[in-house]
Write a structure and sequence with these properties.
By secondary structure, the protein is mostly helical. It has 5 helices and no strands.
Length: 109
């Protein structure tokens, strides 16, 4: 009887886990981009409060989505392998968790 060879899991960047990992680091980048995009609006005193509230809501939703997608991608590492998933998912999860923590602390105080 010959030993059977176990084939490695192929690296397919189109899996749901890879897309979730990409979304987890892309959400904090979008928060930063939106923040820079609305800076001219914040300089106008009449629209400052509305722009700040809207940005806060969008940023909180993006941070929550980034954290959730990072956790889901990390949960799929066992099934899809760590290549192309682990580093983006960890990066996105840490950045998104930081944003969520800032929002929660700001809301509480």
């Amino acid at each position: 009887m010959s030993a059977t060879r176990i084939e490695p899991v192929p690296h397919d960047p189109a899996t749901v886990a890879h897309r979730l990992a990409t979304a987890s680091w892309l959400c904090p980048v979008l928060i930063i981009a939106i923040n820079f995009a609305i800076q001219p609006v914040r300089s106008d005193p009449a629209s400052r409060m509305m722009a700040t509230m809207l940005f806060g809501l969008i940023a909180f939703v993006l941070a929550t989505v980034g954290l959730a997608s990072g956790i889901a991608a990390l949960a799929a590492v066992r099934r899809h392998g760590w290549r192309g998933i682990l580093v983006p998912a960890l990066t996105g999860s840490v950045l998104s968790a930081g944003y969520v923590a800032v929002f929660v602390i700001a809301y509480l105080y």
